[in-house]
Amino acid sequence: MIFNNQYELQRVEKAELLKELGKNPYTHNIKRDSTTKKFKDDHEQIKNLENMRDKNKENTVAGRIKFLRHMGKAAFAKIEDDQGVLQVYFSKESIGEDWFKSVKKLIEVGDIISVTGFPFITKTGELSLHVKTLKLATKSITPLPEKFHGLTNKELRYRKRYLDMIMNYKIKETFRTRSKIVSLIRNFFEEKNFLEVETPMMHPIPGGANAKPFVTHHNALGVERYLRIAPELYLKRLIVGGFEAVFEINRNFRNEGMDLTHNPEFTMIEFYWAYHTYYDLMELTQEMFAMLLKQLKLPKKIPYGDIEIDFSKKFKILSYKNALIEIGGISIETLETKKSVLAYLKDKDEEVDEKLSLGKLYEKLFDLYVEKKLINPTFIIDYPIEISPLARKKDDDQNIAERFELFIAGHEIANGFNELNDPIDQYNRFTSQLKIKDEGDGSAHEMDEDYVRALGYGLPPTAGQGIGIDRLTMILTNEQSIRDVILFPAMKPVHVNNNKKEDI
RNA sequence: GUCUUGUUAGCUCAGCUGGUAGAGCAGUUCCCUUUUAAGGAAUUGGCCGUUGGUUCGAAUCCAACACAGGACACCA
Fold this sequence. Notes:
Blueprint: H1 6-20, H2 36-42, E1 59-71, E2 74-81, E3 84-91, H3 92-95, H4 97-106, E4 112-121, E5 127-138, H5 154-159, H6 161-167, H7 169-191, E6 195-196, E7 202-203, E8 215-218, E9 223-227, H8 232-241, E10 245-253, E11 265-274, H9 278-295, E12 301-304, E13 307-310, E14 316-319, H10 320-326, H11 332-336, H12 338-347, H13 358-369, E15 378-384, E16 393-394, E17 397-408, E18 411-418, H14 423-438, H15 449-456, E19 462-468, H16 469-477
Parallel strand pairs: 3-5, 6-10, 14-15
Antiparallel strand pairs: 1-2, 1-4, 2-3, 4-5, 7-9, 8-9, 10-11, 11-19, 12-13, 15-17, 16-17, 17-18, 18-19
The chain binds one RNA strand of 76 nucleotides through helix 1, strand 1, strand 2, strand 3 and helix 5.
């Protein structure tokens, strides 16, 4: 029996007793004509009535009992539904003596009930429902956590999100906002004539990002498949095919570490826009943020933990190299050669791989000394080419990619660039990524010959971008951990320890 | 992957330098017809994360392991 602790057994017994009384503890025969919020809104004016009640009104509201206060022959309960909480009052007289006695014994906090009755205002001034009929909708077998402190254990909150939602009302708001963000973004792109598409999640060759993939096996085909690390290469094939503006909002999977900003599966929007440039993307991104803030009714300066993020000005644009100099405080001379950068890092007691290229070393410097300082929205542009294997080179500097990343609150939120559409160049970039992979960087990009062949047919000048929806939601909901914006974040399984020594 | 802190009743937490486990809420039994974490009286409930070790004796000391929070590393 799965429910075997003393409290659960007690409640199972109560459910049995209810059945014996002819009250199905799991009935479906419940209809309501109002909600906790609507009931309060509809009857707000009864405070002006003489008796502060209106016996001619009648509504049925259903919800979970969160508080229950018995007082001999009467009782108050707070019931909660999707919309909020409503206090209900019932007594021996209002629902009948026998049923009142049974309710007192058999119905408790956690149970879901429906109540029918009229609005009134209590002595302490709370608009409440005076119950005439009380029905049990669902008997709760497992008791709820404590009513005052609630559920605070983070592990339990993540593992049992349903319980977290019952106990921590605020978290539901966060996930409503998340849903709204996705919906608003979808709308935004549709209105700009982007076409929403769905490309494969199981890839024969993992591509579109530098990351380690999850591997799975396709039985019928007898081949390995990789959960996608990015939809990028498929979306660009669609641009080759003739769609000129596409987007996809869905999950990507990366087989890497987890922390406050990384979950192994995460949601991204990627969009590709033919005959546009990465400067157009930066404009579009700012427009999108303005739209989100407006629709979510957020101010232009929003709090995030101990800091404030200012969206009121045009986002700052700064080149990668200048960011290292101006924000990282690194001298131009230091940045000139591999040797001087290595010396700088060693001087700072940082562990570095001497084999890293200058571009990779820049990346290291950026992560160490710049990223965390980018609080207000900032576009960092013009990235080293070797960390941007799918981005177009600048015409006047072969070492720089026409690429940007958007940073907010020290986190990377978006990544966009002019797509590399020279098939020969792309082939060579893949080849040099393979070399990096051979040298031991498991996250280097794979060769995707079919993608290069697609480019062979001609990819129009295109700019493309990805935005991390989880991180975006974190910023807009003021949550510090990605786990607080993912309904069911990845957790290790808890396994029962059975390795007790056997007698010999 | 590394470091660090934690794991005690259903939940939130005490438990000191080792001496056989406590509180509040919830539950159970009573009293109470307008309460707001309602109140009053009594009371049930513990493989002290797991496995070993040290010791006459371990929730407490030591080790390994598991899981979690945080930091770092990798990445978005």
